[in-house]
Each structure stands twice: as structure tokens, then as C-alpha cells.
Amino acid sequence: MTDPASSVRSSRQDDLALLGDVERSAAEVYFAALGERAGLPDVMPPEILQACHDAGLLWVCVDGSDAPVGFLAAAAIDGVLFVKEMSVHSAHQRRGLGRLLMQRAIAHAADAGFTGIALTTDRFIPFNAPFYERLGFAECPLDQAPETLRLLCADEAAGGFDPERRVLMTRSVSVLQPATGPVYPGRPKETRA
Predict the structure, then answer these.
(1) Do 83 and 21 contact (CB within 8 A), yes or no?
(2) Domain with 90 in it: what CATH number?
(3) Which of 57, 73, 129, 139 is the most exposed place for a label (fewest CB within 10 A)?
(4) Cα–Cα distance between 31 and 87 in angstroms, integer?
(5) Residue 153, SS3?
(6) Across 15-19, 28-32, 135-139, 182-186, least confident range
(7) Is the Cβ–Cβ distance between 24 and 42 less than 8 Å?
(8) How sure is the predictor about 167, in pLDDT bands with cuts at 50, 70 and 90?
(9) How far apart are CA 4 and CA 77, in angstroms?
(10) Is the residue at 177 inside a domain?
């Protein structure tokens, strides 16, 4: 059930300083499910968050008082919208806010002409890969991924993420374009007697 008091909007500069607390809260839930912290960072570097904002690829989910309770940060990588981070504050989880954020990113990717959307996540935590599968994402084997996404996965492994647990997931966002001609060119028209 989606929280009716919440909505998703594009980020504003003054939101950025508030997103660290949202991400830290979500990270606590993630690390508890993972069973270890393994030296992984609990927040995105501020310069990456700023770059996502500057590119117009940062959306926030806000409560009824317009305070951020979740966010999705993305980057354009070789024609694909790559989700760098999606976090929902622990006090606001399990209310459909992650789904709202992802739906906004998927809609943006389609509207902006991206060929797809991609992300990396943990394959075993129930609120990670299975959640994204329900949204139409599927695992993309690394040997079939574009080189830039393979390098990104290698960087994650070098940063402390267990490559056996990580999974690259993708989803097509192609949209039907309005027809500019007949749907079946060359097909004879039917006549009725």
C-alpha cells in the first residue's frame, strides 16, 4: 500500500544535505539483512549526489510536509539510465515509496529516450533483487553487459561488495511510438460484401 501523504518530485539543492540521513537509515536495514558491514560506505559521496542532481537525475520522495523520506539517484551510462542509489528511510519503508521512486525513474528513462534502466543489488536479500524483478527487471549476466556496466561492477567489487552476492539487473523502457504509416504496409485492405 502506497502512503497517500507521499509524493515524488525532482530534487532541489536544499534537499541534498538531508539525504545522508535517509541513506544512513536505509543502510542500517540493508546491513542488518546482509549480516555484515564489511567496511562498505553508508552514504554516497556528496559530489556524486550533486552530479546526479545537476544532471536532473535525482528524485526525492517527500512526506506531507515536503521533507525527503526517500530518494533515487541515477546517471546516464551509454544510453542506459543507471540507478546509483535508491534509499527509503527505515521509518517509511514497506509503504510503496521505493516503487514510486522506481516508477518515476522508469518513466523518465522512457521519456528521455534511454534504451533501458540498470542497477546493481544484492541477489539474496528479499527486498532487493526480488523487489526489482516484480518491477520488470531481470538479471543481466556480466558477459552480456556493456563494458561500462561490467567495469562498474568490478569497481563495486573493489570497493568491498561481494561479487558472488551482487547482481546486475536491467529493464527495457522502450515505448511504443505513434504510427506514422500503416501498421501492415503492403497488406491489401479487406473489403466486405
Answers:
(1) no
(2) 3.40.630.30
(3) 139
(4) 13
(5) helix
(6) 182-186
(7) yes
(8) very high
(9) 33
(10) no
Which has the closest alpha carbon to 170: 92, 100, 35, 78? 78
- In this structure, what C-alpha cell is assigned to residue 105? 525513474
77-121: pLDDT as tens digits: 989 999 999 998 888 888 889 999 999 999 999 999 999 999 999
| Residue 52 vs residues 45, 57, 71, 188: alpha-carbon distances, Å | 11, 5, 11, 51
Give the confidence band of 125 by pLDDT, cuts at 50, 70, 90: confident
Expressed as residue numbers, the domain containing 144 is 7-172
Counted residue by residue, the chain has a size of 193
C-alpha cell at 178: 505513434
Q: How many domains does the chain have?
A: 1
Tell me the C-alpha to C-alpha distance, in Å, between residue 101 and each of 24, 70, 131, 171, 180.
Answer: 18, 8, 13, 15, 33
Report the candidate in 174, 177, 155, 175 with the shortest Cα–Cα distance to residue 166: 155
